[in-house]
Write a structure and sequence with these properties.
Elements (H helix, E strand, L loop, with lengths): L7 H10 L3 E3 L2 E3 L5 H70 L9 H14 L9 H13 L5 H10 L5 H6 L1 H5 L1 H37 L8 E3 L1 H11 L1 H5 L2 E7 L6 E3 L3 H17 L7 E10 L2 E8 L29 H11 L3 E7 L2 E9 L6 H10 L20 H4 L1
Parallel strand pairs: 4-6
Antiparallel strand pairs: 1-2, 3-5, 6-7, 7-9, 8-9
């Protein structure tokens, strides 16, 4: 029985097993040598690994698609009540601002109506911004000031004034008569607390609305639709979604150039920034809890391209590993902390869009540079054609791998 008549898969497997083969009770004499058998074996192993990689990426893409639909639905449902809360908060703020003037015709206290209106108005302005409450030191300073002015019960009044953030010595001097009046101080306490509550509700609603907009933009289903995209807006979306992840770990500085033209891109651009920022945060954490981490994100224009640079002061990438960092499943992280797909995804998305990614690293500093083409210099049909020509399975979203050295931009390669 000739070896060529056997099924190719069985033939390769039989050749790997031994040189003298028995098929259907017939001796088959191999027609290729042992080195060729090894080559066939290596090729089979490589193909199996590639299929396994593509299967994992497909599973990740399907999971993310489901999560994206769920997130978009939740964001849509949240958006309506958040909008209502924001509108109510703004209406309350306007009514609160008009309240002192509305009280003037009914005011019969020891303080003049003008003094009452002026004091409440400045009290409201002092509480329009959310922030930390007055410190113990500020409270003691107010107490000493009141004692110097011979105000009765200085300690209790100082606590009330600190609670409603009315601690500026100039304001206290200007409205000292109001501060001396116990009845007015009760009114000021209630008025200041309402002003604080309205400011907190409005600011919090705005933050929720911002997160909802970013989530809807990030989770939208048309990630394959090619369209002009504002690069600064895309980066801002990623920073909003990662705010909680980054705020207690690192300090983020942005230097985003204004007036940049849009680039050709898809919704997948967000994955680039989230992967790079998360990867940078992990690299900084490797330097220990006492290290003051910092990430710098900058955008600029260079000819017909937009450049995005993400720099961190983490551990850096060893020189002998720079050539591997874009390989799928390559990671230097501990088991369970990364899948090694993060930077592979970044490279795949950038390549599909006709861009380039590169990295420069030394101990204590690593910079990734993403180069993207301008929308005015690329036709949508050309991008779509490029995307269809690429092999499937190159993109998705996964864990963050070790940072890698990517291909040079065309001008450098030339």
């Amino acid at each position: 029985m000739a070896l060529e008549r056997i099924d190719p898969v069985k033939r390769a497997a039989l050749l790997i097993k031994c040189n003298d083969l028995v098929v259907n009770d017939q001796v088959v004499i191999p027609v290729i040598s042992r080195p060729d058998v090894c080559a066939v074996k290596n090729k089979l192993v490589a193909e199996m690994r590639e299929r396994e990689r593509m299967a994992i990426e497909l599973q990740l893409a399907q999971k993310l698609e489901s999560v994206g639909r769920l997130a978009a639905g939740v964001a849509h449902e949240i958006n309506t009540p958040v909008g209502a809360i924001l509108n109510v908060s703004r209406n309350l703020a306007r009514m609160l601002a008009a309240l002192p003037r509305s009280l003037v015709p009914f005011w019969h206290g020891a303080i003049s109506p003008t003094a009452m209106e002026g004091c409440l108005d400045e009290l409201r302005q002092a509480n329009t911004k959310t922030g930390d409450v007055s410190s113990y030191r500020e409270t003691k300073q107010v107490e000493r000031f009141l004692e110097q002015q011979r105000v009765e019960d200085a300690k209790a009044r100082a606590e009330v004034l600190a609670r409603i953030r009315f601690t500026d010595p100039e304001l206290l001097s200007r409205h000292l008569d109001c501060v001396r009046n116990s009845s007015f101080l009760k009114l000021a306490d209630a008025y200041g607390s309402m002003a604080q509550g309205v400011a907190i509700a409005e600011t919090s609603s705005q933050k929720i609305a911002e997160i909802v907009r970013a989530l809807k933009y990030y989770a939208r289903s048309d990630t394959d639709r090619v369209a002009p995209i504002e690069i600064n807006e895309s980066i801002h979306t990623a920073l909003v979604l990662l705010r909680n992840h980054l705020k207690n770990r690192v300090r983020v500085e942005t230097d985003l150039a204004t007036g940049l033209p849009p680039v050709i891109g898809t919704g997948e651009l967000n994955q680039i920034w989230t992967n790079l920022l998360t990867n940078a945060c992990d690299a900084i954490e490797e330097r220990g809890p006492d290290h003051e981490g910092m990430i710098r994100v900058g955008t600029s224009r260079a000819g017909d391209r937009i450049l995005v640079r993400v720099t961190d002061n983490g551990v850096g990438i060893p020189e002998d590993k720079l050539q591997k960092v874009f390989d799928p499943f390559y990671t230097t992280k501990d088991i369970g902390k990364g899948t090694g797909l993060g930077l592979s995804i970044v490279s795949g998305i950038v390549t599909k869009l006709g861009g380039a990614v590169s990295v420069v690293s030394r101990p204590g500093e690593t910079t990734f540079e993403i180069s993207l083409r301008l929308a005015e210099n690329m036709s949508v049909s050309a991008i779509v054609g490029t995307r269809l020509a690429l092999a499937p399975g190159r993109h998705g979203s996964g864990g963050e791998g070790a940072r890698k050295q990517g291909p040079e931009p065309p001008e450098r390669a030339a």
